[in-house]
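Narrative of activities, Objective 1.

The group set out to show that a structural description can be obtained from nothing but a protein's sequence at a throughput compatible with the screening campaign. Below is one input-output pair from the validation batch, recorded exactly as produced.
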Amino acid sequence: MRKVLLLLTALVLPMVASAPLQADEYEYLWLYSPAPSEPQSYAIADLQKITFGEEALQVHLKSQPTPVTWAYANLYKMSLEAVPTTAVKRVAEASDLAVIQSASELRVESPTPLKSVAIYNLQGRRLALLGQSETSTTYSLKSLPAGVYIVRAENATQTQATKFVKH
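Output recorded for this entry:
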C-alpha cells in the first residue's frame, strides 16, 4: 500500500507543481455613497444594463427581477474594477478617497476631512503639499511637465496613494 501511495504521489506531484497559482479575478461595478458606509458592488457578469434617468441610475441585474435604483444625490463615485477575489474586501475598504483628474487640475475628495494631500514624482520627490482642508481640495496641473506622478491623500481613517498621468 505504501508503494502505491508513493507511486501515485510521484505521478501527481509534477502536475500539481506545474499548475500556476493565482487568484481568480472578477470584474465589479462599485457604487459609493457620500456617507461613510460600505460601497455596493455588483458582478459585471450579473449586469444586464445600466439605465441613466433624470434623477437616478438603475442597475438591472440578471439575478434580481427589479432593478437597483441609486439617486444621483446619493452617488459619490462609480467605478468598474477587475479585482482578485482575495482583494475584494481590501479594495472596498480603501476606496473612500477619490482622485479625479481633468486636463488642467487634480481634485481629491473624501467623505471625511482631509489631513493632507501631497504630489510626488516617480523619483519620490515631493512637488506639492496641499495641507489640511475640508472634504475636497484642488491642485492646478499647469506647472507640472507631462509625466507620471503619485498623489498621496490622507484622511482620518486611511492613507491612499494613486498614480496619475499628465499629458
